[in-house]
Amino acid sequence: MGNRSGRARLCGGRYLMKLPVTVIGGYLGAGKTTLINHLLRNNDGLRLAVLVNEFGELSIDSELIEAQEDGLISISGGCVCCAFGSDLIGALDDIKSMNPPVDHVLVEASGVALPASIIATVGLVDGLRADAVIVLADAEQIRRNAADPYLGDTIHRQFSQADIILLTKSDLAPKEELDDLRGWLRGKAPKARILPVQHGNLPISALIALARPCPRPCANPGPARPVRQPAADP
Amino acid sequence: MNTKIYAAKKIITMNPNQPVVSHVAIRNGRILGAGTLEQLQGWGPYELDTRFADKVLMPGLIEGHAHSMEGALWQFTYVGWFDRMDPDGKVWPGAKSIDEVVARLKEAETRMDDPDAPLLGWGLDPIYMDNLRMTRADLDRVSSTRPVGIMHASGHILNVNTKGLELAGLLKQGNDHPGIPLAGDGLPTGELKSPEIMMPAGKHVGMDRAFLAADANGLRNYGRLCVRAGVTTSSDLGQQLNDDLVKLFTDVTNAEDFPVCLAAFRINFGMSPAELVDYTASLRKLSTERLDLGRIKVIADGSIQGFSARLQWPGYYNGSENGLWYVAPDQLAEIYERALAAGVQVHTHTNGDQATQLAIETLEAALRKHPDFDHRFTLQHCQLASAAQFRKMGRLGMCVNLFANHHFYWGDEHYALTVGPERAERMNACKSALEANVPMTIHSDAPVTPLGPLFTAWAAVNRLTASGRVQGEKERIEVAQALHAITLGAAITMKMDHLIGSVEVGKRADFAVLEDDPTEVPAEALKDISVWGTVQGGRVFAAADI
C-alpha cells in the first residue's frame, strides 16, 4: 500500500537523518516573534517545531493556532510549539519522538541568552544536529543596545556566535545608514552572513538547512558543531 | 476567651518601650500583652503556664530567604563537609574525604531493596577537599549496577556514576560541551555542570521533577526544621506557583500541626511580566494564617562563586569573563512598573554589583512613573553592594537581605579568587546598610547553607571565614542589631512588621524558645545557643517532639 511505502521512505530518509536545529537569538524587540510567525505561515511544507524558553515570551498569531493542550500548541501545517523552561534536553527528546515526525526545530533563545550554549546542548542529543545560529538585530536599536553598559557585552557575545545576522526593520533606516550598519556588524561578526530583512519577510530556505544532511547513517558523525568561545570584550 | 500567661526567665521583645519583660499573655493565638504578671492580670481570668520558667523567649525568628526544598533534600543522603541536622534532629557528621562520602552512600545503598532504584546524595563541596574532583570511578565503588549521583552544595554541579552516564546517553566519545569535563580516555569524568546538562542525567539518579518542585512531605519536613531553628515565619523564595502548587501549599500549611507561616513568592519564570504581576496579585486574597502570598521574586544574575554574577568594572579578580543576565533589563523594567502599578512587592536576586546597580536604576525610573511611598522592594543577596549603592537604596526606600552566611562558607574563596581582598571585605556589608538607613535582614538561602537564623546572626556579628579569619572587620554589627535583623528586620522586608517580628500587644503569638540568652553569651557563642522549640500562633512546638 502507498501508506506502507511512504513509511519505508520515511525510515530510509528522515529516520536515519539527523533532525536539524536552528537557534534564533537576539535581544528583546529585535523581531524574533515576527520572524517565527512568518516562518510558520510560510513553512514550505516543512513541519516545524518551535521551542521557546517560556510561552509568555512568544506570541504565536492566534489564527495559526489549532489546539493547545499539555503545554503543546498545535499549529496549522503540522507545526508545533512548546516551552522548554529549564529542561531543553527533555523538550528536544520529546520533539524527536513526535509522530508524525517534525522536519526542523527552531529554538527561540531568550533575549539575554547566549546561543552557543544552546547549540552545545543540542550537540549532546543523539539524532539531532545543529543547523545554524541566527541572531536578529534591530536596525534602529542595535547600536544603542551594543553600547549599553549593562547589555553591550551580551549583545557582542551573541553576534560572535552567529552564523547569520538578520538586520530587522531595515526599511526604517535610510540606505546610507544601513550600509554603515552592515559594515559595523561585519566588524563584529566577520564570519556571519548579514541579511537585511523587513517584517521577518524571508524565504525559509534562506535560513534553515544550511548544512547538507548526512545521506546515510554515519559511523561516527562527531560533534555537531565545535563550541566557539565568545570573543573577548572590546 | 481563654487567656494563657507564660512566665519566662526572660523575654526579649524587640519593642524599644520595654525591651525585656518576664511574662506574655496570649489569647486566640495573638499577644494580648507583655509585661509583669501584675500588669497582665488586668485582662481578666487566665491560666498561668510556667513551662518556660527557665527559658529565654524571643520573637519568633524569621528567615527572609530560604527554600522549602531544604525539607525535601532530606529524603536523600547528605554528604556535605559540615555537620548538619536533619528534620528528625539527627546530626549527620560532615564527610571529610571522598572515601567518607563513598562510605556514607554505600551504607545507604545496603538499606535499599530495589536493585535498580537510583541513589542520590547531596551537599558535596570540593572546595573544602582542596578542590579534589570526584569521578565516576569513585561513585562506581558505591554501585556499578544502580545509578548513583551527588548534587553539589552549590546546586550547580552533579556527579554521576558510570551507570548514570550510561542511562543519560552520555557514556560515549565526542561529548563536546563546556559543562562535561572529559577524562584522558575521552569519556566524561562524571561531573556534569550547568542545569541543562544536570537535568537529563539527574532524572536517572533520582533527581526527578518531583525532587525539584515542592512536595507535601518536603514541606512538612521543612516545617520541622524551622521548629529546630526557632523559626516561626519563613519565606519560600521562589516557587513557580500555579493553581496546583498553591493548593498543595494551602493544604499542607492548613494542617493543625503545621508549625510555621510560609511566605511563598512567585518566581519570574514561565510567565510574561504581565501574567506574572496579574497572577501574583490574584494570589494575595488566597493568603491564610500560615500561607502568605502575593509577592514576586526576580532573578537578575547568577552567583559570584560560579562566576555567573554580573560585576561592575573591573570584574572578576581572576580575570573570568563577566557573568550572565538571567532577566533582560527591559523585562525587569516592565515587571517593576507593572508591580508598582498593581501594588505587588518584588524581591530581586542580585549577587554582583552591576546587577544591584541595574535594579536600583530600574526601580528609580519605574518609581517616576508609578510613585509608591512604601514599596519596600528588596534586593536579595546584594552581596557586593558598595556604600554608594546602599545610600541610593536608602533614599529610594528599598530594603536589603544580605547573605551573611557567605563569609563563613565561601569568604576565603571570595578573597583569593572571585572578587579579591578589597571587595571581599565589603561583601554583605551589614554595617554600611544600616548606616544608610536601609531596612536590613540576613539569610541562609537554605538549602545552600543550613537554616538557622542564630548562626546567620553569628556570621554577621563575627564575620569569620571557614579558615578562621575575620573578613571585613568594619562591617561587623552588634549582637542587638543582628537579633533585630532576624526578627523585626526580616518582617519589615516582607511588609509583615505589623503582624510579627516583636513581642507586642496585637501581634501573632510567635516565639523562639531558647535555652540561653543571646544577649548574655559571648558573641562568638551565638551560633551555639540551643533552641528548645517555638510557639507559633499560640501553638507550642517542642523540637524534641516534632
Automatic annotation (TrEMBL), chain A:
InterPro entries (alphabetical): CobW/HypB/UreG_nucleotide-bd, P-loop_NTPase, Zinc-reg_GTPase_activator
SUPFAM superfamilies (UniProt xref): P-loop containing nucleoside triphosphate hydrolases
Designated name of the protein: GTP-binding protein
CDD domains: CobW-like
Organism: Paracoccus methylarcula
Superkingdom per UniProt: Bacteria
Ranges of residues in domain CobW/HypB/UreG nucleotide-binding: 20-195
From TrEMBL, chain B:
Domain of life: Bacteria
CDD domains the UniProt entry points to: YtcJ_like
Naturally occurring in which organism (per UniProt): Paracoccus methylarcula
UniProt domain Amidohydrolase: residue ranges: 54-540
Pfam families: Amidohydro_3 (PF07969)
InterPro entries linked to this entry: Amidohydro_3, Metal-dep_hydrolase_composite, Metal_Hydrolase, YtcJ-like
Organism classification: Bacteria, Pseudomonadati, Pseudomonadota, Alphaproteobacteria, Rhodobacterales
Descriptive protein name: Amidohydrolase
Molecular-function GO terms, alphabetical: hydrolase activity, acting on carbon-nitrogen (but not peptide) bonds
